[in-house]
Amino acid sequence: MTIHAIGLMSGTSLDGLDICLAKFQRKDQWSFQIIKAETISYPKEWEDKLKNAIYANTEQLLELNSEYGFYLGKLVDNFIHQYDIKDISLISSHGHTIFHQPHKKFTLQIGDGRAIKIATNLPTIYDFRTQDVLMGGNGAPLVPIGDELLFSEYDACLNLGGFSNISLKVNNERIAFDIVPVNIVLNKLAQKFNKDFDKNGDLAKEGKINNELLHTLNSLDFYNKSHPKSLGVEWCHKNIFPLFNSFATLDILATFTEHIAQQISNVINQYTLKNILFTGGGTYNQYLIEKIKSKTTGEIVIPESQIIDYKEALIFAFMGILRFNQEINVLASATGSARDHSSGIIA
């Protein structure tokens, strides 16, 4: 069985839309090949719309859901024509997360898949998280199914995106959980210096670690919770950003980078992991990676840039294929839902 699919991922750090076209084959087990992938930066207009959507009223949000769906469809249609793509079976879209409150039984990723289908004339799978939340799960993390079936040669897969999450095998069961906020915080701090992100951690290097702030951060309740557990933007606004008010921004960057490294290394050491695949934009933060390496004995594997940048979009393409075939694409051991299930709406 061979199938070509496009995966779409828009992360909380608002750096753009990841589009990944990949070929998947199943013989004894699944394999993949990324054929073409790129990130399309959001124009200022869309960056502002997505950033401010959390404050929108219901009518505005419904309008944005449709508008963003058509926008995604247009971007995909352009991508298909630009690279003269002929063989494609489906599109699988994560959408852009506006709310994620699984304890209240809701999560919202906008970008109506029906609009994407109308714009591209291709079957589109979307809204992967809601069903899991309704089944008592966290609705996250979802990528462990891809880690299990596409990246099983690693002890663990760790993503450094807006948040850091990890998936690993424990007692022959795939578990996964969010570890700590990463770029959602670092990028916001870097913006105070008119930079989109802290390249290589250069700004953090200039600051001094504030031990009082570091202790407060490390003492947050979330870090003592057992898995499964997940983080959201709202959690950062409530628990992280208010702590920064009385400190210099460079020192906050230095301290928060140290905080990230400590929380990630705690997890790696707790499970005595031997080789860990690192992906996501934060992998390019050399200062952060050096800090993590210095605190762990496990081998930190940094793959080729295509995997670093597009692993999540790749796995969402894969999840769409599984859903289209009515196969399991969400693992209860990772999300905490009632059972493994096949999630996503097919448009």
Automatic annotation (TrEMBL):
GO MF entry, a single one: kinase activity
Keyword terms, alphabetized: Kinase, Transferase
SUPFAM superfamilies recorded: Actin-like ATPase domain
Claim: Transferase is one of the keywords in the record: yes
Record EC number: 2.7.1.170
InterPro entries: Anhydro_N_Ac-Mur_kinase, ATPase_NBD
Keyword Transit peptide carried by entry: no
Single GO BP term: amino sugar metabolic process
Superkingdom classification of source: Bacteria
NCBIfam families referenced in this protein's UniProt entry, alphabetically: PRK09585.2-3
PANTHER family given in the database record: ANHYDRO-N-ACETYLMURAMIC ACID KINASE
Full protein name: Anhydro-N-acetylmuramic acid kinase
Organism from which the protein derives: Chryseobacterium potabilaquae
Gene: anmK
